[in-house]
Structures are given as structure tokens and as C-alpha cells.
Amino acid sequence: MSDIPVPRAATEESRIVRLVLILLAVGGLAILVAAPLIAVFAQALSDGGRAAVASLAQPDAWEAIRLTLIVAAVSVPVNAIFGIAAAWAITKFDFPGKTVLITLIDLPFSVSPVVAGLCFVLLFGSHSLLGSWLIGNGYPIVFALPGIILATVFVTFPFVARELIPVMIEQGRAEEEAALTLGASGWRVLRTVTLPNIRWALLYGVLLCNARAMGEFGAVAVVSGKIRGETATMPITIEMMYNEYLSVAAFSMAALLALLALVTLAIKSLLEWRYADQLAATRRH
Amino acid sequence: MHIQIDEIAKTFGATTALHPLALNLPSGALVALLGPSGSGKTTLLRILGGLEFPTSGRVLFDGVDATGLTVQERRAGFVFQSYALFRHMTVFENIAYGLRARPRRTRPEAAEITRRVTKLLDLIQLPDIGQRYPSQLSGGQRQRVALARALAIEPRMLLLDEPFGALDARVRKELRQGLREIHDTTGLTTVFVTHDQDEAMELADLVVVMSMGRIEQVGRPQDIRAAPATAFVREFISA
Amino acid sequence: MRIARSSPMPGFGLAMGITVTMLSLVVLLPIAALILQGASLGPSAWWAAVSSPRVAAALYLSFRLALFAALFNLVFGVLLAWVLVRYRFPGRKLIDAAVDLPFALPTAVAGIALTALYAPNGVLGAALPWKIAYTQWGIFVALVFVGLPFVTRTVQPVVEELDREVEEASASLGASRGMTLRRVVLPTLLPAALTGFALSLARAVGEYGSVIFIAGNIPLKTEIAPLLIVIRLEEFDIAGAAAIGLAMLAISFSMLFIINAVQIWSRRRIGLV
Lengths: 285, 239, 273
Description:
The complex is a heterotrimer of chains A (285), B (239) and C (273).
Chain A: H1 15-44, H2 49-56, H3 59-92, H4 98-106, H5 113-124, H6 129-136, H7 145-155, H8 159-171, H9 174-181, H10 186-215, H11 218-224, H12 234-243, H13 247-274, H14 276-283
Chain B: E1 3-12, E2 15-25, E3 30-34, H1 41-49, E4 56-61, E5 64-65, H2 71-74, E6 76-79, H3 91-100, H4 110-123, H5 139-152, E7 157-161, H6 169-186, E8 189-194, H7 197-203, E9 206-211, E10 214-219, H8 221-226, H9 231-238
Parallel strand pairs in B: 3-8, 3-9, 6-7, 7-8
Antiparallel strand pairs in B: 1-2, 1-4, 4-5, 9-10
Helix pairs in contact in B: 3-4, 3-5, 4-5
Chain C: H1 12-41, H2 43-50, H3 53-86, H4 92-98, H5 101-104, H6 107-118, H7 123-127, H8 136-160, H9 164-172, H10 177-206, H11 209-215, H12 225-234, H13 238-269
């Protein structure tokens, strides 16, 4: 029997190095991520739970929540449909310019939300030809709901497509081709073969898209005109209340959005854990 | 270098990879560890190389206990099944890696490193590929570069894990001869793992047949062929 | 459609139609509006607007602090990816999920939360010896927060797929663990880390919501470029806003271009293509 202590494995760091790295990681995340999250709830509850709930029952707060839900209810399905269409075109067919198309779909990720909002103001604002004509005919885009929805669709544009494309590339075309040879129509193939195969990746994309849609601030701040009770979404209302030193009200609404973020993360982790194999392609890109 | 394995056993959690086994490998021998997958042959090779540590037992190099030596201290030239070449380094940098890893005191000078790498490239008969990247080489070339890289550290022994496993049949035959020649030139005790009995029988001086973490038979190829010790050996070498 | 005929799959026209129409209406047309508006200024007027001290200071500030934050996230992100994949410790799964919080938390929420923490009377602000909120440090902290997940999430899958034999080969050639990490592991992670760095940088340059609450917004000192666009719009200075917007667009696109080139180069070097 050997009584010489076993040296550590060739691909491991020493105990002390591991300990230091783990502490750095955990400590860093605690300060950078956990602390702000706790701060939101602590500030919201600083006057007690009743004050927090009461501040959310104010008409302006209520109107902001309603507006945010409407914006998400329109922009998320629009992006889901776009994502499915784009992924179908890109993964099931070969055509020139495919790489350019993928780059263009990703473009909104590299544009500042404020610049995105600015683009819509320039296109539809009252000083532009198109904008003044639309306003003249009673269809204002900027400083109104359509502008908020457009800006939200812009900033969330790549979310669903980005999740679906790698998954659908990995799955190939064989199953769809098999269904076609069995006499299925195109819609039937989409409904009975493709969608079941991509459902978790789709849900994943929709989830992230929704979180961003309900929380978008920069782009909406520019296009909405911040009209209280009319075009003020939840994040805009947070800013207004915060600037008016209504701390509890601002943080209560922030806590509501933070809860949404936590639920989003929980479902997302569940999906990653439960359907790791079907999402694997997504994580690699 | 003479390698002595003294009642080595290895368990991974609840599974036993190696039952206590003893083995003597004479200095300068070319030894094959032969067996099906799961027989423990790779685990034994990795224990010799210091990549795995035995649960009990000792390894002696030239009579000196080497069980507690780290992989860096072993000076075993190890050739991996995947070759494990560094993708972001040229062939030259790959081969020079072990020399440059030495502490400053024993590190050769740049000119000396160049001289040694050039000599090794000649030995593997690929003198002109120093500036290429591994991704630009064929499978056979990669295997030979891995061999040269292992030899560069002036190892005390050469350990090879399925050295021909990833190659097609034609290249395989060619490189068997190459390994034999390199072994004869360097005189290093050489141990290779294989599941291919033809390869073991043709190439090795000494064949160790393993199954289920136990040694079934140790002997020269002709002796094993003439007198298989167990039913397993008979079955396996006739397959 | 002629191209579709080469494939037996139906629906090319419809799918492509939806894709191109939406892309044009929602993304390309608005961006074109900005470029046209910017171009209508003419180069000299544009340059005059962008090179005025206040605008130049804002652009420089946004870019410089985004770079610092992305560099911080590069180092911390690689560390985090390594720890999450290679080490086992209690709470690892929770930490792994927490990395994505900055993606999920609305920027305005992050902004007021960070301000509450780092303000002089906040928990961390009171504990630290120097001022964070309402200084450039505050902007840095906010940009680190929003860019935190990018590097970790791009590097993590690469660490998972690292070939252990390569690390073992390095060790068997006599390299210490430190040398193996420096010479073998880190170069392999580099392309993914650069991708994450680029994404983090692009995000930080244009970030608005999380920054404006903590920045203090003092012209020439802590006023970021996106905020200046908002201010110009509030002053009904459409041309001024468009000039800054175009400059930011140009910075984003050229960064995207440079980083793609660097990435292709580094991937080619380690033989991934």
C-alpha cells in the first residue's frame, strides 16, 4: 500500500486557487446582481407592504400596467410570427444573401435603444412628410400607442428568430420532407412536425422577448412623449415617479417588473434544465 | 527504464476499474496492453503516466517508488488517442512546448530548441511542416507530430493510448512500422494500448491481455498464440 | 419563386415575404430615415454638430466607459464561466441562473436600484470610501451590470466542450497548471470571449435606462451620448439629435465590423473553420 498522498489530478487547480475563484465569482455576483435586486424590494417595502400595494392601486400606475400589457400582447406575437417565418425561410431553403439577411435580423441588437426611438421619431414625427400626413389624417404614430409598439418590436426583433434558427438548422429538413412525401400540406407540416419540434425553443425565445418588451425603456422614452396616463408604460412611469421623489411608488412598480424578471428566469432555468437537449443548439451560438 | 507495477488497484466510486494486479515491464521493451473496451487497459496506462492515481498499490520506475510523482514529474512521453495537439500553435510550437515549459535553469536556449525540434521533425520524416497548424495536417501526420512532441521532453518512457485508433487501415499499417522504428532508435520502454489483436501481435515484444480490470495473460505474441491461458484469451485473439 | 423550386419544401414565398416586409418596415426603413436625415445635414454641418465640446465629450464618455466596463466583464465573465462549469459547490445552479438577471431585469429598474445602493446614503455608497453615484464610477457600475452576462454566456459552452486530453497533454509535457491555463486553455477560449466582449461593448455604448439615474448627468462630465439625443429631442432640435444618432450608429456599425473581422481571424488561427 502506498502512503504517499495522492497528487491532484492533472486538469485541476489547487484547492486554494479553486476556493479563491469561487469566492470571487460568488462575491462578485452578490454585489453586482443580488444586491440591486434586494435593494428594489427593500426600497419598495420601506414604508410597509400596505403603502407599496396602495401606490400600485393609483390610477396612473394602473394605466401604466394596462398599457405595458397591451404593448407586450401585440409585439410579442408579432415577433413570434416573424421569428417562425424568418427561421423557416432561412433553414428550409438555400438562397443567395442568406448571411446578409441573418446579419440584418441581428442589427437591432447593436443599435442603441435611444437611437432606435430616434429613427421612429424621424420617420413618423410631425416634422416629416409621412408623419405630418398621418397626423393630418388622424393616425399619429409617434407619441402614441403605435409608436411604442413599433419601437418595442424593433428592440426585440431578433429574440425569437435567434433562438429558432440554430435549433432548426440542427434538426435538418428530413422530418419535414418525410411528411411531404406522406402527402401533408405545407401548413400541416408546420403544425404537426416543425412546431412540435421547436416548441421549447420557441417558448424560450418568446419568454425573453416578453421580458424585454415589458421592460423596454430607452426606445419607448423617446417615442412615447411620456404622456401621463396615456403613453407612459411601466418603466416610463417608474422614471416619472422617481423624479418626483415618489420613492415607494417608483420602487413598488420596479418590484413588480423585478418579479416578472425573476419568474422569467425561473421558467428559463426550468426549460434549460428540462429540455437541455432541445435547446443545446441555441446555447452554442 | 524498467517499470514495475506492484498490486495496483483502481476504483471510481462504486465501480472497480482495476483489480489488484502486478506486472513487470523490462527496460526497452515494446509492450501492448490488449483488451476490449472497459478492460482497464487505458486506466493502467494513465496510472503509469501520472494522469490517474491508483486507489492502492505502487508503481516503481527502475526500482524507485514513483507512485506519488505528479504528471509533470513523471517525464512520461504520452500520446493521446485524439493526439490532443494544441490547435492554436504551429507544429513547431507544439513540439517545442515541453522544452519551453521547463524551469529557466534547465530550459534550453532558443537555438538549441530549434535544433532539437528540427531533429525530431526529421525523425518523424516530416521535415517541412514546422510552420503549419494541426488543422492543416492529415490524421497520420498529426499522430507523428504528437509522437515528436512527446519525445521532445526526453521522456523516460513512451506511453501511447490507441495510437492508431483514429486512422484508416492503410495509414495504420504504415505507421505501425514507424512506431517500431522510433522505438528501436530511441530504445525507450514503450507501452501502447490497443483493442486490435493484430496490431498487438504484430508490433509488440510483450503482450498483456486484459479483461474486466484483470490481467488474463502476459507473454510474447507467439507464446500467447500457441498457448492461450484462458478461454477469454483464446476467444479474443481468434476474433 | 424560382429559388424555391430547387427545394421540395413549400412556403418559401410566404415566409420570405413576411421576413423581408417586417425587416424593411420595422428595422431598415427607420434606420434609413436616420441616415437620410443625417445626410441631409451635409458633412460640414454634421461635423460641426458632433464636434461641439458637449457632444464630443458625451460620445467620448459613452465609448470610453463602455470599453472599461466591457474589459471588466471580459475578465470577470471568463472567470465566472470557468467556475460555473469546472467547480462543484453549493448554490452553483442558483448562481448560474442569477447570471442572466441583467438580461431579464428592465434597465430602468436596474438604474434606480443601483442608484439606491450607491448613493451617498445607500448601503454600498455609505460603505465605500469614494463617491460612486453621480460620478463616472456610477456609469461604470451600471454598464458592468447590463453587460455582465454576455461573456459568461458565450464562453460557458466552449469551456464545457474543452478537450480534457489537451490539458493533460500540456501537463504530461511538464507544464505547470498555470502555464497550461495561460498557454493552452485561455487561447482556446479567446474567440468566444471576444464575441462576448463585443456584445457587451455594443450594449454598453448605447445603454441609456440603467445609466441616467446613477450618472448625475452633468454636461461635459457625466452626460452620456444617448441622453444628449433625448435632450436635443426635448429641445425640438431634430437635426442635432439626428447628427448624434448618426454618429452613434456609425460607431456601432464599425465596432461590429472590426470585431467580426477579429473573430474570423482568431477562429481561423485555431483551425475552427
